[in-house]
Structure formats: C-alpha cells, structure tokens
C-alpha cells in the first residue's frame, strides 16, 4: 500500500478539465480498473472544489502487498463501513481476476499507481488549506487501514464459479432492505444466483438481471410436494446447479429435502424438522419441561390429571410459528385458557405448547459452523419485550415496566444491542452449550440463529440513571445457583436482516455471505485434483471472511424495533431529527400510507412499524452505552400517525 500525497486544490471554486488528471494512456479502457480508479480521483477533486472552493483533496490509494485474488470484490468498502473520516471508499477489483504487486517509488506517476490500485479512500473535507491537518488525518487513516485490512483478504485461489439456487427471492428491495444484503453478497463473491420463486416475482423481470443469473417460476405452496416441485423447476435451468439454499424459515425443510433429492450438500432435513417445530425442539433438548395440547378441550382434560398444579407464570405459543406471533405469558388459569383458545382459533391444526416462563436475560446467539468447526460466534443482548414486563408478571421491577412504552402483552422485539454485557463465563457457557446442541442435531455447516436465556444469571435488567440496562443482580435475588442455559429456539439460517446489518457494522462479518458459502460445502464429491483445489479455495475464503474487525474498530450497535401499538389506518411517519439520524446507518418504515391495521391487542399480533440500526461513534464500553442511549432517543423521537 502507498499513500498518495494530497492533491493540490483548484485556485477557485470553478472546476475545469485542466485541474483534473486526464486518462491519456492508450492501454486504459473505459471499463478497466484503471479507468475506474482514475474516475474516482477525478470525481473526488471535482466534488471537493465545487463544494468547498480552495481546499485540499486527500485520497489514499491502496496497493496490494501480495499477488492473488480478493475474497470479495467489495471487501475494502465493507471493512470501512464505520470509518467516520471517509467521504467515499471504493474497490477497484474484479471477481476472479488476479491482482499483482508492483514496485513503486517517488518517481511513480499517478496513473501507474492507479493501474496497480485495489481501492482508494477519499477523506472528508478538511477545512482550509492547512497541510499539517491533512497529514495528521492521513496518518490516522494509515492506522485504520492497518487495523481493518491486516488479515488474509488476498488469497492464492479464487472462489470457483458456482450457480446457487436461491429458493425465495425475497421482497422487492424498495419494500424490504433484506434483499440488498443477499444479492450484494452474491455479486461480490461471484456466485451466480438462480432464483426460484412464484410466477411474477420481481426477479423475473428482465430489469432484474443485474441481481440474478436466472429466474425459474415454481409453485411455492408449503406442502409435502414442494421439494419435488423445486427439483422439477431446477431441472429446467440453463446450467448446472451446484447448491441450494434459502433464507426463509418456512422453506428450510423443503429446501433441504430438494437438495438431498438432487444429491447436493445440505444440512439434515430431519434436523430442520426439529428446529421448525418448537415441540420437537423442546423434546430434543429437555422433554420434561413442557406440555403440548391440541386445544382448549384437550388442555382442560389434561389439567384434571396433573399430579401437581401448574406453576405460573407460563409461556403459551403455537408449536409452529414465526416472529413471536401468538406467544403469550400467562399468570393464571383464566389467562391460560384464554391464550390457548386464541391460538387454537388463529392457528388451526397447530399444536400448542405450554412451558415455564424462565427468568433471566435473553440473548440472540449467532454461530457459524464449517465442517463441524465453530469458526465464528457472537452473542448480543435481547432486551425485555413488553410481554416480559407485563402487568401479569412480577419478575421485573416496576421501574423497568414503566421505562419501556409498548403494548402490554407483546413479545415483539424492542431492542437488540451488541456486544452483550453478560460476564465472560456466561458467554462461554452459552457458546459451548448451544454449539453442542447444534452438533448433536447433526449440523456441520451453516449460519445458525439461536435464542436463549441465562437462568440464574449474575446479571439482570434494571433502570439505571442512563436508562434500562443489564446490571449485576440485586443481592436480594437468589443468585447462588450456577447459571444455566435455557434454549428457546433454533433457526438454521441467518438472523433477521436488521441484525445481520448490525453485526457487519460492529464486527465486519457478513452473515449473508457466510450462509451462501456454507451451502457450497462439498457433499459426496469425487476425489479429483480440481475439486480438491476448489475445496481449498472455499475453506480459505470462508476463514478469511470469519475474521472480525479488531476491537478498536468494533463500534457497538443497537437495533431499535418499533412494534405497532394501536389499530387504524396508517397515515405516515415523520423523519428523525438530523442530530439523531446521523447515528442511524440502516432503517425502514414497513407500513404504507393507507394500510389498514387491526388492533394488535385483540389480534395478539404486533407487526413492526419500523426499525433503525443505530451505531455508536465510540468503541468499547463507552460505545455500548452510547449505542443504547442513542437508540432510546431514536425510539422516543420517532413518530407515526394512525387514524
């Protein structure tokens, strides 16, 4: 790598071609990396001069320290998401194209530097023309480059070109931000996506060719025949299918069975079935902690034969469900009967689970397994939902209840903050216990999102002078028992896209990319030299993309969810004040103007109005506190209107 000295500013605010380096080398083409790099420099100078007049334009050009292939062609941009002094960050590499080191000296020209460059960083406007200020900023940038890029992101072998069948292409990007991360990762890795979805899906349109290689229509009705329909649809593909995956909960078992029918790598469909059904999950992990009923009549019959009375509070939920839909906490038999009847009516034919409510901090745990090895894990704090602190329970003090304005009986998420404040020994306990469960189920490859509680934790949620936070448990609570893990559910896929984005901002790890790469794992592959090389390349790239940002570059994140709290017609939402919006890196309002919304209290379902990913400006404990505080300010400032 080398530092390009600050470019001289224009003499006035008017930019002319004579102030901008011109591409005169006859070997440069409009589409070459050199041409792209040159345009980056030209645009930076022009923007600086037009917006700021006499000023210095500071650009750092990045040169490769070794020859090889980049693990993904946007790796520099992704690693510098949280660098606050950057005006713009660019990559100049092409998927599968080898890059080479080159000798350079003080005599090296700008065009020669750009010809070898793999990327560049344009610093934000620095006031005045004080060169010492620029040199200080460039020195700081050099430290950031060393910290963020000191890992093996240039490898000996490229990822082999593969065609991946994506079952369920997700909603149109304007409707949901999730597809942006999925398709961006595929394109950066050079993976050709074959989208399998219903006729008329947005990726079927020819204008969506930039997002996928091929679209194949398929009846996506979730039934016993879906795996066969997926296989039949893929048999019509214009090229080979090397792997199949999905990001959809409902489609995980069917997708795994389709992959097995085609002889492709997949996690065990039987394990998918267990994760898909909460009753089966509970029976696999702790069969003596729950009761399953088919409905209210069945429950009343079972209660008459219990050897010991039920101990409240209890959790009641459909055995198959998503996004906490239908989950309720009850503290009396009357509430229990009402909850079971409501679930029976809303989820006909679905079994109903009744289990103890476990007191303790809840966490989201995200693990990445590759060839049976845990390559990456992170655990974040899932703050109490309003259902946790509802008036029917006594496990949280009144201060916490009053501090979180939300529907009284909802288990919709409110806040997820990373990293967790749990003690290291409890983090280690969660990691070892949950990994053991995944391996016991037969999982070896994939990204897994688990939800759990730490029973008898040394920490509890309480109101501090800075708001709700995890603190050491009060002395009047019984914390003499050793902490233990209570598994809530296993999702053999990435977490919600809001959390995926937050993880990448905080740790530099892209779950969308890892999920796809895990699907490429070899399965019953013949032992040939070329396939051996492909496997080596895959393993190398996977390990590289599991390398987190160093601690000094890890900025804590706070995912703020706004669940609906009343029924009516959605009118709209007001934008956040700029002083808060600057901390928000991703956000979306899910509702459309004129949309009619049912009363969530009556329906027992609390859809999200919006979400915000808030990222701190400081690392470490100070950043964690800042992320929590700024997130709550965003929650308080966000206003929407429902008539």
TrEMBL record:
This is ATP-grasp domain-containing protein. PROSITE patterns: ATP_GRASP. Transmembrane segments: none annotated. Keywords: ATP-binding, Ligase, Nucleotide-binding. Residues 1-33 are annotated as: Disordered. Pfam families: ATP-grasp_4, ATPgrasp_N. PANTHER family: ATP-GRASP ENZYME FSQD, FUMIPYRROLE BIOSYNTHESIS PROTEIN C. Residues 283-520 form the ATP-grasp domain. One of its GO terms (molecular function) is metal ion binding. Gene3D superfamilies: 3.40.50.20, ATP-grasp fold, A domain, ATP-grasp fold, B domain. Residues 24-33 have a biased composition (Polar residues). It comes from the Eukaryota. The lineage of its organism: Eukaryota, Fungi, Dikarya, Ascomycota, Pezizomycotina. The keyword rRNA processing does not apply. Signal peptide: none annotated.
